Amino acid sequence: MKKNYITMFLLLNASSIMAGLALRPVVDSALLVGAGLGTIFLFCTIVLVGKREKQTKAQ
Q: What is the pTM of this model?
């Protein structure tokens, strides 16, 4: 079974931002941490899309 890491990182991006918004009343810096993690997951997605595009052009 081929794993789709792009979808996984996109879902992690959205869920980390939502968790940061949900935990904002409890923890002061939750939104900052959630947005930071979301940005990291988004960059991972961009790297994986670039690798996939490079592989499809090489074939």
A: 0.87
